[in-house]
User: Fold these one by one.
Assistant:
Number 1:
Amino acid sequence: MAYRKLGVDNKHRRSMLANLTREVIKKGKVVTTETRAKETRKFVDKMITYGKKGDLISRRKALAFLQNDKEAVKVVFDTLSNKYANRNGGYTRILKLDERRGDDALMAVLELVEE
């Protein structure tokens, strides 16, 4: 699977993406760089798909990726899976913002789509 390296080593990248995914799941949106938002979108959609499956192996996979955050997994399997039950993908949207002042990185808001 091709992925963006995001300028960090593999462990840091996986941890960062897991943290961003947890923030989107718990808070509904996160402000980050456009590249990180595009990469995180894949994992948020995957977690919601796991929630819609609802079986034990999907719950364990979600728990493993979300670094044993039981609260986030509960939100995915109880709230988000019901919210997006009739939707086939496309659970997130990326809204572009202005450049960050310090390094001119393109910023974006990654948020869950409201029905």
Number 2:
Amino acid sequence: MASIKDLIHSAAYKAFMKKLLIYALIVFGLGIVFMLCKWPGGSVMTITGGSVLIFWMVFFIIEKLVESNS
């Protein structure tokens, strides 16, 4: 069974986290633009993008804690 350290150091995990960050920033940014232009869907996009960014940040902090303890 693989440990959390093996998962964090894998190339697939790093690629997934990079893509997740990019997509979340795009959705969040488009949501802000939609809200400024008063187009429908802006609030949903902003909430979704922000939630995914928080999710990413939690895993980023866990990754840094695991790396500092090893």
Number 3:
Amino acid sequence: MQDCKARILSVRRLAQGYQVLALDAPAIAIQAQPGQFVHVRIPTLAASRLRRPFSIYDVEPETGRLFILYKVVGFGTRHLAELPEGAEIQVLGPIGRGFPLTGSGVPFLVGGGYGVAPLWFLATRLPRKGVLFVGGRTVADILEVERFQKLGWVVRVATQDGSQGVRGLVTVPLDEALAEESNAVLYACGPDGMLRAVGERAIAHGIQGWLSLDKHMVCGVGACLACVQRICREGTERLARVCIDGPVFESREIVW
């Protein structure tokens, strides 16, 4: 884990409110694994010393570039979006336990909105290609589909208003695929409701389901106990720190 200053190299704007930030952070980029995150301190937030967690979207170890994909949703991300190229931010990372990269099943990646961020990094590192299931309220929440397709992944889209793909939740195309493929492994990132639904399907089908939890964090290094999640391992329930014991957990571990 490194705590370093990272210079903003570029900003790529996607759909409404979504952006990809490229940072010069070689010490972090060379260590990062899919599913890990970074904790960012934004210099213009004089009223707050708290960092903001962001999933690692991609890395280029050879150039030292680190990428994060985020949505402008509040005070902190608004300030981050206003920073110009060349500005420096303080970045701590990589943090946490990411997705496992081994397994014999067909990988099914399930993402909601900017939940696709760690799934892209994962898709570039898994030993075999599979299917990305991506969902959102509208077409504006469906991100980076073309990049996954160019990488060789099949993409299934669901929107709640029917503006792209099938109408409904992302579990609609997922259920159809699970009915046809018995040798799948699920990897998911998104809101709790979606994660719980994906985890329930993994358990019902007797397959592994790796879920990346999204919790409010303060310190990001396991000291403050603000991001705990109840889990069960070997028949014993306990509280796990999502920041360092996760953010990725197997579906059977999580006590909702």
Number 4:
Amino acid sequence: MPRKKKYIESEVIEKAMQLFWHNGYEATSIRELEKEMGINQFSIYSSFGNKKGVFLKSLSCYKEKVKKELIDKLKNSVDGVDAIKQYFYDFIAFSRDAKGKKGCLITNTVNELGENADKEILNSVLNFAANVKTLFIEKLELDTSKTKKIIEKQSNYLMVALQGVSVASKMFNDEQLTDFIESTFERL
């Protein structure tokens, strides 16, 4: 007879996500996951397969949080470039908590694991980035004076700038980040 779970999966994944977000994938051990999630190693392996399984679920949890707190707002806005700029500011607030400046779990993962990351992890990260870029393109297209070529260049520029602000948000102060964002959007 299968054992009944004595925990709520979404709650333990939220805890794991926070741990990965602070420590990174490689630096997070199964022992730390056990402690943070409040479940034993057997339950981790039984429910998620392995550390990678927990991490993939954590990435999904993170993406859902970003969707609810940032992406839906951007998607529903009709403010074009100003909506993208607000996304940058909202992202900075999202990337910080009482425990410190964490940046973006997606960017942190790319920086940590690079292009040689596990294919499933890499695909998860790249799909998320592609969805954000698509939204940037949609908002840039609201300015009908822009050509497709300009929109493509600007969306690429904004994706790189977003990566930059993600990394910078972990170490620079609000004034520096504001200057960066304002300078970024002056070029559009």
